[in-house]
Amino acid sequence: MADSAGIQQGSPAIGAAGLVPAAPGAGGTEGSGAAGGSARIAVKKAQLRSSPRPKKLEKLGVYSSCKAEGACKCNGWKSQNPPPTPPRTDQQSNAVNLQEPCRSCSHTLGDHVTHLENVSEEEMNRLLGIVLDVEYLYTCVHKEEDADTKQVYFSLFKLLRKSILQMGKPMLEAQESPPFEKPSIEQGVNNFVQYKFSHLPSKERQTIMELAKMFLNQINYWQLETPSQRRQRVPNDDAAGYKANYTRWLCYCNVPQFCDSLPRYETTQIFGRTLLRSVFTVMRKQLLEQARQEKDKLPPEKRTLILTHFPKFLSMLEEEVYSHSSPIWSQDFLAGASGGQIPIHTVISAPPVARPLYYSTSPVSVDPSTRGSVSPARKTSSALEPNPVGEKRKPSEPLTHEENKRPRVVGDIPMDLINEVMATITDPAAIPETSLLSAHSARDEAARLEERRGVIEFHVIGNSLNQKPNKRILMWLVGLQNVFSHQLPRMPKEYITRLVFDPKHKTLSLIKDGRVIGGICFRMFPSQGFTEIVFCAVTSNEQVKGYGTHLMNHLKEYHIKHEILNFLTYADEYAIGYFKKQGFSKDIKVPKAKYVGYIKDYEGATLMGCELNPSIPYTEFSVIIKKQKEIIKKLIERKQAQIRKVYPGLSCFKEGVRQIPIESIPGIRETGWKPVGKGKELKDPDQLYSTLKTILQHVKSHQNAWPFMEPVKKTEAPGYYQVIRFPMDLKTMSERLKSRYYTTRKLFMADMQRIFTNCREYNPPESEYYKCANLLEKFFYTKIKEAGLIEK
């Protein structure tokens, strides 16, 4: 019965533009799902290209004109029995019949694909890639709200459609071809470095080069605002000129990142000063703001570079960008001999940001064109009386005698030391009003402060058929219906209204200045021990303020009070990431018999659950974590002060000793070092084989194992085998296991570790593959420890 959630809230440092690639379909906004979207398209193409040839012909036939005699005008074969929408994943694919007639012209599928009979597999795979790009652009056209962006998508859609019909390569027809302005942004920045910094010593000049490369990388992955957004922000700007550059950017830089059948160019290589002037001010502001927010996440060696040198670099560059007499934009500018061009490589990985991801807790997809951030969070309450949820949950019951007597874990820190450290830290009950731009601020800190000041309120409300209507509650319910309808435009308004006003459903409402700005609708099943989350949203102009996280935390507290400790919801592929951040998992703790028949099973959606811990005060959780970090920091400082002793160097090696035990090094144990425990080596070959087989099966069935199932194909990753000298994959490991190659656990673990190491070496940190490797590696070592092959 879960319908849909909204869009994830973005980072406060992101406004009308973003920092990394964003998939087409939401012009002028940015999002964290960009790299993931590109990877999904690549996976779909790989799956389609590995299909049998008849299946490929069927796919291409849909986009091929009929070749039957009699000058048939049918421009694409249509099946008599089209697959359901959305297609059922449990259906077996039927064998392709080339004699099946077209629903439109009655000629067979074979009549539509006769021109493909002698086409090579390579050419057919190229055409199939264009087909998937066409289908993706078709979706973008229908989801996009901005008229200018929609027009470009439609033009590219027609171009690729024509390329399939004519079996040609898509070529953009334009009055001008890249580059559109000289010197390019890349050349201008190179000139700037030579002009301003060529006199510096080599080491300092290298620092400037790093800043320049970082800046160029950010421009290449910057998401431009739409012409309509720019007209609102800068009414007196050259609207026609910006629109022309925006169209070119979409066609040559943005869309080709995801539709790789189109030629792709770097923004910095085909655009010049004009485009840079139009984005520089906003870009500079947001880059510096984001740097301040994430300063503690930066590696120590990059912190000074970004926080100190980068702002000065941008200020100096800004003068040259907007100066009418700057020599760096002259085509006659002569670069100094000491310099050299700046190759565009990612020096500092841009943090994944900001394109909206469209979350849906059911197969009913949320229309990306909403462009509002909708945060899942909500609560339920009494029927007509608003239930304020701001008050803190009462402490849990005192620990029992048995719990108090539980044995202390080895390594526990003595309580007297904790109390001593706590005395040196600010009163933990006081919550400092941290700047919202601080890197230390939690996602929900701003919302928590507003709640404390009385700016916002949280109430669990619902309709009732047996109590006198309360005007204020009914007004809030109408407001919630409006918020859900506006933020979730693909959901029928009648359906939203029915659930919001259904007495069995409750809604945690977020009230600001007396009006509803967001909420979460849900239904509780006390007898079954779980609650079903239906949909949630925050109105678009109140997003990026932490309201979504704070709503969900209030919802968790409310359910702990009512002794319901499990949430269930259906999430589509875009919503999974959001719910994971809120503590949801695909590992459902509720027995299936408890929820089957109570919530509807959706095709194409993933059931996710969240188990609540009644000991956690969720609305104050981030404050507690912050205090714990402070305690650990103080303890580390104390320990460092205690061991700050210099020992004499080791002289035994001069006397001919080749090796000594680590524990014999003076002072090593005082630092807290302990010998690394050795894992248990199974001596029985059959027992080792059975254990490794079980672990490998668990790894292969993990949700993040899909990139590593088979060897990497050269066609999908050009140059992979030049970078990776010793490739490894799960299929090869299965074959090795079957042949009894793994005679020790170390051989098995080495091959598995090679998979993760290879992935991180070849792929950038912001890629989906890199993230999959990290998550799967963590899962693998959990299973290894459970099997007792290494010490926990």
UniProtKB/TrEMBL annotation:
InterPro entries: Acyl_CoA_acyltransferase (IPR016181), Bromodomain (IPR001487), Bromodomain-like_sf (IPR036427), Bromodomain_CS (IPR018359), GCN5 (IPR037800), GCN5/PCAF (IPR016376), GNAT_dom (IPR000182), PCAF_N (IPR009464). GO terms for cellular component: ATAC complex; centrosome; nucleus. It is found in: Cytoplasm, Cytoskeleton, Microtubule organizing center, Centrosome; Nucleus. Residues 465-613 form the N-acetyltransferase domain. Residues 1-11, 362-384 have a biased composition (Polar residues). GO terms for biological process: bone morphogenesis; epigenetic regulation of gene expression; limb development; positive regulation of transcription by RNA polymerase II; regulation of bone development; regulation of cartilage development. Acetyl-CoA binds at residues 536-538, 543-549, 574-577. GO terms for molecular function: histone H3K9 acetyltransferase activity. Residues 700-770 form the Bromo domain. This is Histone acetyltransferase. It comes from Lates calcarifer (Barramundi). The gene is LOC108897825.
